[in-house]
Amino acid sequence: MAAKKSPFFDTATTLGKVVAFFGISALCGVLAAGMLVPVAAIAKTGLTTGNNIVSALPSSFEKLPISEPSTILDANGKTIANFYQQNREPVKINDISPYMRKAIVSVEDERFYEHKGVDPKGIARAVVGNLTSSSRSGASTLTQQYVNNLLVNNQELTGSEESTISGQKDYAAKIRELKYAVAIEKEMSKDEILEGYLNLVLFSGREYGVQAAAQRFYSVDAKDLNVQQSAMLAGMVQLPNVYNPINNPERSLDRRNKVLGNMYRTGAINKKEYDDAVKSGLELKPSTSPSGCSSAQDNAYFCDYVVNLILSDDTYGKTKEDREGLLYRGGLTIKTTLNSELNKKAAADARKAIDPNAKSNKDIHSSIVSVQPGTGNILTMAQNTTYGPDSKNSGSSTYYNFAVERSKGGAGGFQGGSTMKPYTTLGWLTEGNRMSETINAKKQAFQPGTKFRASCLPGGTATVGSKWEPKNASPGFYRRMTVDTGLYWSINTATVQEAFRTDLCTIADYTKRLGVLDQDADNGQPGPISPANPSFIIGSANITPLSQAAAFATFANKGEYCKPRAMTSVVDKDNNEYKVPQETCSQEIDPAYVADLNGTLKKIATKRVSKGRVEGPIAGKTGTNNYATSTWFVGYTTGIATATWVGRLNGKAANETNQLHGAIINDEQAPKMVDSSTYAAPLWVDFMEEAVLQYERKGFGKAGKRPAPVVPDTPDGAMSDGEKEDAAAAKARAAAEARARAEAEARAEAEAKRKAAEEKKKAEEEKREAEEKKEAEEKKEAAEKKKAEEDKKKSQKSSKPRPPKSSD
């Protein structure tokens, strides 16, 4: 059974309060710095003296950083999005309206500039009020409130559950608050305390600090708040929800006028200022500053990509929770590579290509992403949908970013179709072949057991498992043709024959070196494209638009690949810099091969796609998978490379049921044959027509001296007699070309040596002549100097005065 309380020490009774006040106050007296401890608090602690109470507490506490929003900026410094748990923008005291400073002092602590952290008069008034009524009133000074807000902030950062809410604190917590207030008054000036308080205090919802509150309710800066606005905001801090002017305008107006009365009574404003202010209405002009990528509008998917980069990088914290805390509380300024104005056009063009509001387009979407050659900077990243949940299952909104991989918020990529063919051509060129060489594109079927050369696989071959029948979209191309023609018209059987005479590992290696990964290589995880299945050469692997844009930027940059990057700098509120990926570029393709490849890709973009609309030089490649569930165009200038994709989100189900041929798209029936020229290429043209004007458009260069060919052996039994003859002829041509090149190089070397000898001889003669000339000039100069000295002596002798003659 609990011991029965004595009414003399039970502070819940009036008698207990009186005894506590007179008895314990006599023991404690007045503490250092004039601090009068609330007597009821002392009685409740069970401590015998005020000195014991105060000395038991530490003299100060750690003031942890206050929460500040993080901001993502575009390449020009324009805000894309803010992230916060507490919307706060700290400002200096001089950037806070004098009216606001006077208002908060008048209503919360009118003796703020007189006391030293604790107000004995206020405590006495509160004690008397608490003794004589059942209600409780506080006596917290602004300094105490500042301490309390700091403690709340500390608890949020450390996860403490100790209550610091007024009316819920125990007496030890109250005494602690009093002592810290006295300590802070010794460390900080009054203006510093007032500035700290006005930047820390909650005004409404997630609006913390006077600057955020001024913007929220009046769309002005804190320095521009007038009398009535200041009074309204000052009145809110006591009960932010009750006095919220949007939700409770009448209460807010009444509270504001009471604050104005306090300001007039304390001399903070004069009679005219009071009269004018009290007659005015609330005159709100609210604005919002939403948190997160949802507020980034057309830039939302790029924003989401940046957030995923930060949350997956231990540079910003050991755990995901740490990284989230830094993003939402750490005041980061994240500068990015995004051209937000151009991205706005990209989003508009994506919606124009595939209308997200068309009922027929539930699973049909578009994506567009641009990368800068030579830097890897991501310039645009947009799609036809709105960033958000697809609550109505309409397809008009989604969180999926179609341009990137799953781990960065993506949908897992799409079949690349014929946009993969340039990698086969690069392999073909690497082995010493030419774009002008003829291949036999008649073959339409490869039987099980057919072997393709693949030096990196066991046995050096890749074997066809089941019968493989690559078909052409146009029936008239099952014939002999040049490699250039096959690539220009995107003929599957031509590409297969190229690959058949090329090492598949060389082709696959190019995709790896240029960052094009199979998004399902390892149980749904991205990895290098495997050469084991020859069908990868015509686009069976699921790849991302971002990776293709970056890879094709390599063709624009003479074979130098730059990893795509989205951030250029990350700095926190204390100007601490975080490490971000720098421009990372490497030469991955011989420029001679790129020049040969560009010769064909230029014709595709110029003649088949742009048709005069996009100012060149431009180049690119079309792409369509089976049943057109994934269609592409990836094209570039030397200044910008852009991948456009149009297809089904469920495009991996590339079957007749899912096909886009003749489907209802944009609420209209599509052509019977849908390919890249139907939606994806027009989207690219619409966007690039203006985009290319913002970036350089130099020529792609000419082929230089070609490197020595690589002509590996072909596995036995892999080719027919005719194909063997073609291969033998190719080897013979390659050998002849190699000999011719060697002879030419020898002649060039001999000529270079001859020229070098002549130049050396000429240089020696010029040197000898220069030395002789210098010697003659030195002799001449010495002679002139000698003559000048002689002339000087003669002049001095003739001018010397003669002695006077003596008289007779």
UniProtKB/TrEMBL annotation:
Domain Glycosyl transferase family: 77-263
Protein name: Penicillin-binding protein
Species name: Glutamicibacter mishrai
GO process terms (BP): cell wall organization; peptidoglycan biosynthetic process; proteolysis; regulation of cell shape
GO molecular function: penicillin binding; peptidoglycan glycosyltransferase activity; serine-type D-Ala-D-Ala carboxypeptidase activity
Pfam families per UniProt: Transgly (PF00912), Transpeptidase (PF00905)
Domain Penicillin-binding protein transpeptidase span(s) in chain numbering: 367-646
Lineage: Bacteria, Bacillati, Actinomycetota, Actinomycetes, Micrococcales
Keyword Glycosyltransferase: yes
